[in-house]
Recover the amino acids of this structure.
């Protein structure tokens, strides 16, 4: 059984070394990742998706005025947004995924 564990142990050691080297080279990204990983159990996984959608203007009350989503809707679709379009999917997600 031990001979089967050695490759897994080597892989885990290599992954750990890679993670430490990457975190040393990218401290801000590593810090943001650590915060995200730490907050996910508290806030739930939906916040990872909901926060960027809300920031772009996709929300439960519809598209927020003066946002990127409002600009996109006005320039690409006007008053008619086709069902199943990327915009419609993002608006659906912004309206249903909550934080």
């Amino acid at each position: 059984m031990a001979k089967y564990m050695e490759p897994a142990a080597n892989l885990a050691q290599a992954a750990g070394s890679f993670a430490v080297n990457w975190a040393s080279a990218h401290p801000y990204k590593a810090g943001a990742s650590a915060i995200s990983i730490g907050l996910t159990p508290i806030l739930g996984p939906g916040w990872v998706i909901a926060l960027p959608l809300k920031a772009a203007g996709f929300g439960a009350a519809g598209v927020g005025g003066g946002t990127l989503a409002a600009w996109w809707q006005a320039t690409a679709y006007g008053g008619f947004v086709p069902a199943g379009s990327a915009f419609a999917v993002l608006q659906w997600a912004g309206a249903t995924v909550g934080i």
About this structure: The beta strands are 58-59, 62-63. The helical segments are 2-25, 27-43, 46-56, 68-77, 86-96. The CA atoms of residues 32 and 38 lie 10 Å apart.
